[in-house]
Specification:
The chain is of the alpha/beta class. The protein has 6 helices and 5 strands; from the N terminus they run αβαβαβαβαβα. It comes from Thioalkalivibrio nitratireducens (strain DSM 14787 / UNIQEM 213 / ALEN2).
């Protein structure tokens, strides 16, 4: 049963709590949220939400999460390109006790809204 639960948590489809791009922008400008970008390092360098931390979904382990030094008292928003890789990230974060959600429609929604990005 435990193996089946693990496999299910990595399934990139299904409902998890979400926030819109505009909601995330408001939360991030107030410093009330931690943003974890689960895309590849190359995607992260190309364009990211200001203040986001990078942890590719392929490194989403206990030690990977510890390396982010997340504050368990503040919400976390997981971000990917299209809101598929962020689904398992949200499940894992919630199982670890974080108030986690994903960016609805991913970075594509952020870009469509014309919201600020960092590069490099």
């Amino acid at each position: 049963m435990m193996i089946l639960d693990t496999i299910r948590s990595w399934w990139p489809f299904g409902a998890v709590p979400e926030v819109s791009a505009e909601e995330l922008r408001k939360l991030s400008t107030r410093g009330g949220v931690q943003i974890v970008d689960v895309r590849t390092r190359l995607e992260f360098r190309y364009s990211r939400i200001p203040g986001a931390r990078s942890l590719p979904i392929t490194h989403f382990t206990r030690s990977g999460l510890r390396s982010l030094d997340l504050d368990p008292g503040r919400p976390v928003v997981a971000v990917c390109l299209t809101a598929h890789r962020s689904v398992p990230a949200v499940r894992i974060l919630r199982r670890q006790g974080y108030d986690a959600r994903q960016l609805r429609a991913g970075m594509r929604a952020w870009w469509r809204a014309g919201l600020p990005c960092e590069t490099g």
